[in-house]
Amino acid sequence: MTAAADILRALNADEPREALLARIARHTCTLARTDSCSVMLLDDTGERLVLTAGHALTERYRRDLEAQAPLLVHPSGRESDLPAARAVRERRTVVLRDVAATEATWPWRELALAEGIRSLLAVPLGGADGRELAGVLVGYTGHVRDLAADELAAAELMAQYAGTVLRTAELRAAEHATIRRLERAEQQDRALLRLLLDDAGLDGVLDALAGALDASVTLETPEGSPLGRAGPEVPGVPPVTRTRALRRALAAVDDDRTVVRAPLGSSVCAWVVPIAVADELAARLWVARRDGWADRSVIERFSLLLALELLKRRRAVETELRLTRDLAVELVSGTGDERSLLDRSDALHHDLRRPHTVVLAPPGTAPAALLGGSPLVGEHEGALAVLVPEADRGRLAAALAGAAGPVVIGPTVTATDGYPPAWRVVRTAHALAAEAGTTGVLDLDDLGVAVLLLETGTPDGLRRLAAHRLGALEEHDRTRGTDLVATLREWVRRGCATADTARALHVHPHTISYRLRRVAELAGTDPRRQEGLFELQVALMVRAVQACAARP
């Protein structure tokens, strides 16, 4: 009981395992009246004994014993079988009365005799109630002797108690590890709360994550565009070239919302984490370290904060659109008075007195993100009215080049009463571009005479010209079922190239030439001559403007 109490006190004091086992060995020597004692524990495989602690053993013996072949529980032959291995294998106490008298050619016999060991006692550690054994407790004496029954019972009782102590120590170690993890998690939660309260932003969260993991972190859109990065740069992460295996891995991230280890080869390890907002993939997080280690719990905690920051960004864009929508709509529709419009723009910290370029973009375009500025944005008549202050038309065209559908960059306006006519111009131009199948960006500064038509409408003279030159053609097409006007329009669009027009209309070039001759006869002017071509181009343009302007 004294020995058990001493061991229990050491256990409660969180004594290191090796010191605790040495204490058990010392008490075993006292109880079983042995001269020295060793504690051998099974390794992770359960097939090898490792001398972990001892009492009254010389360093030479411990060193020479470890230098021998592995202490196997199931050796290949009797000559390498140890009493300690037999005790574990047979789950019973093994007593060797006289080491020198054993008939087995035991490889360690000479080593034991050199240490002065003559008798040996090996007792399995633990194993009560069918549990797994932890190892073996081995007692040594320097003279040949028979163990008394009370000595044998005390050694076996100590071995069972030692097994219980070892299991308890493992549980306590696991508890301490859990407590440390919980404490770290609490510290991380406090740090995350501070980041949230301090409004650290996306860059601040990425910096904190890189510091917590001592890793390189990169955030990118699902399309692969960078959103931010922090920590030491790891070359090749994220990779520019994406192999088929990597694309499959990223598909698992995008579709299944699972964390994957990116297949980047053996030189570097990176983890890819999905960041979802409202059950929609908003970004991918790359975490890279040379050693490949990654604390998943830390990543998961920071992922929530990253999702929140991305949601805040999205909300900011939506708020900007909502606050400016009514103002932009009233400007282009002409429904607000000048004083009210200026007061509201001042309240939004937007200087409406600066020149603004009127842009028409398809619905769904994110102008603030594309232009990198603070335009006024509103949806009107099924399109997005974007009023860009002090815009560089070249940079504006480049920024909007990726938008779906035709985009029209219209006039630059300096007064509130200039927005409605400018909007009518870009609406008409957009309708013309859409009818012609045009995509990309259309800058009205590049249209030449078309701008005059769009700005001034279709005067009577131009309307009479269109009727005079195209009326007979249109009547011929309507009554005869021909395509003279369509052929003329395609020929002009193709730069007056007969062969290209024929390929586009899937007819023979001779057919195009014949139709052009009929156009010249009916229109009263030859499109193959410069003056005739100009008049017919103007007539076609007037007809297009008339058709678009007539739409509701």
TrEMBL record:
Which Gene3D superfamilies does the UniProt entry name for this protein? Answer: 3.30.450.40, PucR C-terminal helix-turn-helix domain
Which SUPFAM superfamilies does the protein's record reference?
Answer: GAF domain-like (SSF55781)
Q: Which residues form the GAF domain?
A: 16-176
The UniProt entry, under PANTHER family, shows:
CARBOHYDRATE DIACID REGULATOR (PTHR33744), DNA-BINDING TRANSCRIPTIONAL ACTIVATOR ADER (PTHR33744:SF1)
The protein, known as: Helix-turn-helix domain-containing protein
Q: Which organism's genome codes for this protein?
A: Actinomycetospora rhizophila
